Amino acid sequence: MERLLQKVSLAIVVMAFICLGAVEQSYGIDYTIADLGTLGGTHSAANGINNSGQVVGESHIPGNTAVHAFLYSRGVMTDLGTLGGIFSHGTGINDSGQVVGRSNFNGDDTDWRAFLYSGGVMTDLGTLGGMDSFGNGINNSGQVVGWSELSGDDTDYQAFLYSGGVMTDLGTLGGTLSSGTGINDLGQVVGWSYITGDTAGHAFLYYAGGWTDLGTLGGTHSEATGINNSGEVVGESFITGGEHRHAFLYSGGEMHDLGTLGGTFSRANGINNSGQVVGESFITGGGTVHAFLYSGGVMTDLNTLLPSGSGWDYLMIANAINDQGQIVGEGLINGEFHAFLMSPMTPPQQLDNILSFFDSSASAGTLAGSGPGNSAKGRLKALKNMIEAAGQLISAGDTAGACQQLLDAYQRTDGLPRPPDFVAGEAASELAAMIQDLRTNLGCD
Ligand SMILES: [Ca+2]
Ligand SMILES: [Ca+2]
């Protein structure tokens, strides 16, 4: 009888543990987030990031009289200026710090040129014969893709590849219009193109003269926005029924629907070489866009990964992710939409963050030792010792030891009776979640 009861109570504990895990939706990595500020106006947005953490985008200038491309590097946002017109936008950056984008060039705000910014100089890449061109993507060889008008002004345009100082018309999937949106280090280009008869626009993959129609998720139109060095492509497509658009990931010759955060719309904007995808999605029905990260088969609302007390109202769009997992986009902070940079913490940073949270919560009184009098103080100190010991094991490279130490610490904060918790208070459950995140990041389970 006693054995049976033990088994039953163990089962309850195990079930409670599983339920807690499900509710927490622990992603495993804690993040820091930076407000990149503006060039003096009230709005900015980040569109691209390289593997050094340099960011490009666009920002209003003082007085909000214009929008200029910016380059953000080591805490400083630099105005890249324009080719002579009013507006410019930075759309992509490679690992050498070369920036691609578009700019007005002839004094007004109706004509555009693709630009390449390199070594402090912004260069007009010209066109395929018409007036306007847009630069959308760049790879580590400095090859640029975008679209250009073929003749005249505000007329037909097609995808171009700019390589070695020469702009080449890539053509189309059979229709009249196309646009290049991304290029990887192998020179594979993605974008969208009208198909024969101009009855629909489809996402495409172009390489060395060969075109692949990536199809759709069942609806009429699709559009690719990015490609990584494994040839995995992301974008958006109308789904079956034709009414709604969903983010897609094209890999292994198939287009996969990434779903949404709960609403009717999603769109993928970027992918890194680990296959992590970022984008935007309605969270309910047809309203309120939130930035998402899709990783390991799961789409996560980036807002659930914000550090507590970050000051951001919400993160609206994620536009790019680099190979370190750093994410850039646009969110609302203090009543203004600003460019953001989210960076995953390493395990040692995560552990320092846990200790800071521990100390600030203890001094604020939201975390206290459990039990009466001196035993409460002793338990609070004992738990901190356990977390510090885990930090020493991480530094020593003993991941298995750190995992065990962190499991012991977690079980003394998890709200479950066995083993008894060492701490209580409103911060205890967040502390438990942070410890569990670190365990996930270390690959403990
Ligand atoms: Ca024009
Ligand atoms: Ca416990």
Query: Can you list the ligands bound to this structure?
Result: calcium ion
Mean pLDDT: 93
CATH topology of the largest domain: Neuraminidase
The CATH superfamily of the largest domain is: TolB, C-terminal domain
Class from helix and strand fractions: alpha+beta
Q: What proportion of the residues is helical, as a percent range?
A: 10-25%
- How many domains comprise the coordinates? 2
Q: Radius of gyration, rounded?
A: 25 Å
Total number of helices: 5
Q: Strand arrangement, largest sheet?
A: 1-28-27-26
Written overview of the protein:
By secondary structure, this protein is of the alpha+beta class. It folds into 2 domains: 315 residues, Neuraminidase, CATH 2.120.10.30; 94 residues, no CATH class. 20% of the residues lie in helices and 42% in strands. The chain is built from 5 helices and 30 strands. It has a 4-stranded antiparallel sheet with strand order 1-28-27-26, with no helix packed on it. The chain has a 4-stranded antiparallel sheet with strand order 2-3-4-5, with no helix packed on it. It has a 4-stranded antiparallel sheet with strand order 6-7-8-9, with no helix packed on it. Strand 18 and strand 19 form a beta hairpin. One calcium ion binds next to loops.
